[in-house]
Specification:
The structure holds two protein chains of two kinds. Chain A is mainly α. Chain A is built from 14 helices and four strands. In chain A, the strands form two sheets. In chain A, strands 1-2 form a two-stranded antiparallel sheet. Chain A has a two-stranded antiparallel sheet with strand order 3-4. The model of chain A has no long low-confidence stretch (mean pLDDT 92). By secondary structure, chain B is an alpha/beta fold. Chain B is built from ten helices and 13 strands. A seven-stranded mixed sheet of chain B has the order 7-6-8-9-10-12-13, with helices on both faces. A six-stranded parallel sheet of chain B has the order 2-1-3-4-5-11, with helices on both faces. About 6% of the residues of chain B have low confidence. Classes of the chains: A mainly alpha, B alpha/beta. At the A-B interface, helix 3, helix 11 and helix 13 of A face strand 7, helix 7 and helix 8 of B.
Chain lengths: 332, 318
């Protein structure tokens, strides 16, 4: 009886999800200790943290898929900026309805992702190099589309004069809250992205292919997995999510900024890795990523609530990422 | 004296000796043969620098006897150095440079200057005095004016939030230092900075910091952000909390498409111009090319933009 209990505890302890949850719990306890005069115990703090972290979380969903294929996608932050700029451009100066603008923007993101995926899968270039190039390319494209300026609701007319237009309702819709003001729409979008990723990875045949390609690409190929198609789809998914994140970013900023989201890819990678998905590929899940996203989100919130200086924040964030990863590895 | 040091001495003296005898401008300065100005911008990633180029272009377009070649150094000192050297080789009549950093660009600027090409340095300085004119603004002064305005607006009583730019950057330090001089906390015990966060000039970060400020402080009277995107991010956070009418928002930079629009749309209550100096640079360039004497150092004043004075283009502060 007691032996059986010990074995179970051991098995439970060996699960990555247990360790990820413990790290998150620890972070919440730290938040309780450094609660900034009780602010941490109010739901609005958690609601705001969830809003703040949602854009990163959406990027992390795509990043999880790509990392499980043993790849990496450095271009997500630039695709986010391009999507933000395109979304603002379509809806503000061009005055497209959201129902057309959103699918076009998402298609642009997915298309850029597919290009990365095709270069990785067909040309055999390393994902780091391909997506690094895509990162530069997409950022450049964002600047070309926007002319290097933010695209705002201050719109140039044909005769060169400027005119203020109202933000279309989609902006306020995305940046609003439901359930009596207790949950942000962007957080719902993030959770939907997690759900979609979970279905892809855990319920679809594509998910099994993704794990197989990441585990051992050669073995996967020999056992009949369409490796190229799987890789292209994975990077396309990452671009797709990056575009959704870009739309959320633009709506929250109320404009399309070609400089937005700089270095967000690093946060997204950190969130995936802290959750327990390894960069080696073949292992991991989006549930782990969700926990990783929350852990980093709480860390940032606690530092911000206590008005920690930037230098302290950087040092603590770096140290905590390493501790969390070591903690995850401890199970081996 | 060795041969080498003699050569060096000659080199150093040559511009001083040769300056007056030869005509500096290689073009006539007529619509048929316009003066050519080379403009090297340190980067076009920042909207404020895009605005600077736009100001230079707009001012130059008013003069048919001027032509400006624009180059973007993409935040690389060595690329910018190469651009200055290219302008010299191309035989431009005058160089305008907004340098990325002082040390690596001091020598190429000095070499161009010594070869008789006037150089106008914009916004960030170079070392020494081997240039024609420096034009820049004073962030300490702008921060001080913002602090004074806030102090008067609050009547010496109130709780303030400061959202700081990158505090490892000189503009961030200056706008903070000037603000503290302006509000004079020592002489105004009723004024208090209740929250101070570093948003690194970024709007999403400003929004996060402001959410923390709102969560920890039931009373906030004013938000002072080191740039307009920061103030806008703070306003978005306050609006999401339904508290945007409880406090006033003050930013810096006042770009026409950014801060001025936020004021016009009743988001910000005030923004202080951080002038690009683009228009002034063209005025000074024309004076130099016509052979007039130009001042060595020009400090541009700021302008205050509020809802009331927006339509007349803000008010200058002396």
């Amino acid at each position: 009886m007691s032996v059986d209990w010990q074995v179970r505890l051991k098995q439970w302890w060996a699960l990555p999800v247990t360790r990820a949850l413990l790290a998150l719990l620890l972070m919440i306890v730290i938040g309780g200790l450094f609660n900034a005069d009780g602010a941490f115990f109010r739901w609005s703090i958690h609601r705001d943290m969830l809003r703040q972290v949602s854009v990163f979380g959406i990027l992390a969903c795509g990043m999880t898929v790509v990392i499980i294929t043993a790849g990496i996608d450095l271009s997500v932050s630039s695709v986010l900026a391009l999507a933000a700029v395109c979304f603002a451009w379509f809806t503000l100066p061009l005055d497209w309805p959201a129902i057309i603008a959103i699918p076009v923007v998402v298609a642009v993101g997915a298309a850029l992702g597919s290009v990365s995926g095709a270069l990785v899968a067909r040309m055999g270039i390393q994902p780091f190099i391909v997506t690094l190039a895509m990162m530069v390319f997409a950022r450049g494209l964002a600047k070309v589309v926007s002319g290097g300026q933010k695209i705002t609701n201050y719109v140039a007319e044909a005769d060169g004069s400027m005119r203020l237009v109202d933000h279309p309702p989609i902006f306020d819709l995305i940046d609003s809250r439901i359930l009596g003001g207790n949950l942000s729409i962007v957080t719902i979008v993030f959770l939907l992205c997690v759900l979609v990723t979970w279905i892809v990875l855990a319920r679809l045949r594509l998910g099994r292919y993704i794990y197989a390609v990441g585990g051992n690409q050669e073995a996967a190929r020999l056992s009949g997995v369409p490796v190229r198609r799987t890789l292209i789809t994975s990077y396309a998914l990452s671009g797709f999510f990056a575009a959704i994140a870009g739309i959320c970013q633009a709506a929250q900023e109320t404009h399309g900024d070609p400089e937005t989201g700089m270095a967000y890819e690093l946060d997204a990678i950190a969130m995936v890795v802290i959750g327990g998905t390894t960069l080696a590929g073949g292992k991991g899940s989006v549930v782990l990523t969700l926990i990783g996203v929350l852990t980093i989100g709480y860390l940032q919130k606690i530092l911000s609530l206590n008005a920690a200086p930037e230098a302290t924040r950087l040092v603590l964030t770096g140290a905590i990422i390493i501790c969390a990863v070591l903690f995850q590895r401890g199970r081996k | 004296m060795s041969y080498r040091s003699a050569a060096l001495l000659c080199f150093c003296l040559s511009p001083a000796l040769g300056c007056d005898s030869e005509s500096r401008a290689r073009h006539a300065g007529t619509p048929d043969d316009p003066w050519v100005i080379g403009m090297s911008q340190c980067n076009l990633g920042e909207p404020w620098r895009v605005q600077m180029d736009a100001d230079v272009r707009a001012a130059a377009d008013r003069h048919s006897n001027l032509r400006v070649i624009f180059k973007d150094a993409q935040n690389e000192s060595l690329l910018q150095r190469a651009q200055v050297e290219e302008f010299v080789e191309q035989g431009v009549d005058l160089i305008i440079i907004s340098p990325k950093e002082a040390a690596p660009l001091t020598r190429p600027v000095a070499e161009a200057y010594q070869r008789g090409i006037p150089v106008i340095v914009l916004d960030r300085a170079v070392q020494g005095d081997q240039y024609t004119t420096f034009i820049g603004a004073d962030n300490v002064q702008i921060g001080r004016e913002a602090g004074r305005w806030i102090k008067e607006k609050l009547g010496g009583n109130g709780k303030m939030v400061e959202l700081k730019g990158l505090m490892t950057s000189v503009p961030g330090q200056d706008r903070n230092q000037g603000f503290l001089q302006g509000v004079e906390l020592d002489n105004n015990p009723g004024l208090e900075i209740v929250f101070s966060g570093e948003m690194k000039w970024l709007e999403p970060d400003a929004r996060r910091e402001m959410e923390s400020a709102l969560a920890t402080n039931p009373d906030i009277d004013v938000v002072y952000a080191h740039n307009d995107p920061g103030a806008h991010g703070a306003w978005l956070a306050a609006r999401a909390a339904g508290r945007e009418d409880e406090m006033i928002f003050v930013g810096i930079d006042a770009l026409p498409h950014e801060g001025q629009q936020y004021v016009r749309q009743n988001m910000l209550d005030a923004t202080f111009l951080y002038p690009t100096g683009g228009a002034e640079a063209i005025d000074i360039a024309l004076a130099i090319l016509r052979g007039e004497e130009a001042p060595k150092h020009i400090v541009l004043g700021t302008r205050l933009f509020t809802r009331e004075n927006m339509d007349r283009g803000g008010d200058p502060i002396q």
